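Fold this: Riboflavin biosynthesis protein
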Amino acid sequence: MPVKNTIIPRTFALDAADFPGTALTIGNFDGVHCGHAHLLDCLKKAAKEYGLACGVMTFAPHPREYFARLNQRPELIPTRINTLRDKVCALRQHGADFIALSHFTETLAQTSPTDYIEEILIKQLKVRYLLVGQDFRFGHRREGDVDMLRRYGAKHGFEVNHIDDVTNSEGHRFSSTELRNALSFGDIDSAKQYLGRHYSISGRVQHGKKLGRTLGYPTLNIRVMPHCAIRSGIYVVKVRGLTAQPNDPAIPGIASLGVRPTVDTQGDVLLEVHLIDTNMDAYGKLVSVEFLQHVRDEEKFPDLETLVSAMNNDLATARKYFDQHGL
C-alpha cells in the first residue's frame, strides 16, 4: 500500500518543471548536529551540480518511539532533542529546499523495501540522487540496505552514495545519541560542540499562574515537548524573537526547566524564563531560548522564602556570566 507523504515546501512552490528530480537524504536528524550538517552540505553540492531540488525525508514520531509504544516499552522511547518545528527550521537553514515528512505509522512500518523505493522514492519524490549514512536501513524489518538501493538505482536511473561517519578533531563521532547524553547531564558546552551552535528550544509564550511576578521574578512560560532531552534545572539563557527589530537582538535571562516541585504538584514540564532588566508583553510570541550555562539542578525548597533566596543567587550567577561573556 503506497504511503502518503506531506511535503513542506520552501517559500516558493516546488515545481516539477523547474527540476528534473530531487537530490534526497533520509533520516531522523535528531538535533541536526555537525554530522548532519556535513551530510547536508554534501547533498546541497550534489543538487547544485546535477540541477536537482535538495530535499530531506524525515519522520514523526521517531521510529524507535513508535515501536516502543507498540511493544508497551515506554522506557525505550528516545528523548527528544528538538521540536518538529526546530528540526524543520534547522534543516532549512542547512540548505534543504523541501522536507518530506512521513508520519511513522503501521503502514510505513509494514512497507516492503521494494515498495519503499518504487512508491515513495521514485514515484512520489522523483529521486535522482540519494545520499545516506553507511549503515542506512529501511523498509519492513529494516530489510533494505545501501546495496539494495544501488541495485535499484542502476535499474531506475538514480545515483546512490553513502557518507562515512563524521568525527570531530579528537576523532569522536558526531551522533544524536552522544548529543542526548550531553544534554541529559546538562553539559551545555559539549552539546554546543556537537551542534555547532547553542542548544535551543522554541515555543510560544503562554499565560501561567503568575506566581513568579508576586515573588519579584516575572517569567515567560513556554511548554516543552514530551521526553525533552535536556536535564531539568536552572540555566543561564538568552532569548530571541521578542522584538520586531530586523537583527532580532538577544535578551539575557535566567531560566528554570522542570516541574517546579516547590510550587506545583501536577508534574507538567515547563520552561520559565526571567528576562534580566527587561520587562515586555510577550504573550503569544514565538521565541527561541538558547541555553548557555547549567547553574544547578531543580530542587524542592521547604518554603517560598528559601526559593526566592536561591533565585537571587541564580540571578547573580547569570549577571556574572553576561559580565564575562556578553551576549
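The mean pLDDT is 89. DSSP finds ten helices and twelve strands in the chain.
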